[in-house]
Amino acid sequence: MKLKKNIAVSETGFLFDSNTGESFSLNETGRKILQFLKEDKSEDEISEWFAENYEVDQATFENNLYDFFTVLQNFKIIE
Length: 79
Hints:
Distance between the termini: 6 Å
Number of domains: 1
Oligomer: single chain
Radius of gyration: 12 Å
Structural class: alpha+beta
Order of helices and strands: EEEHHH
Low-confidence stretches: none
């Protein structure tokens, strides 16, 4: 997954799509995931990081990550 080039994300989790003018607020987890996407981290690397740094098992996080990616795809935020 890659974050589209026209997407801007602030340090506070404000996401702006310059193509559509839409904006969204992200929580800390969403902001971190998009940061990892900007760094070209793989889905596995993202899941492993969250499993190691938060009290969540990797399988549960991967399911939630898949759901989050589906939302991002629906809003055309990722490719």
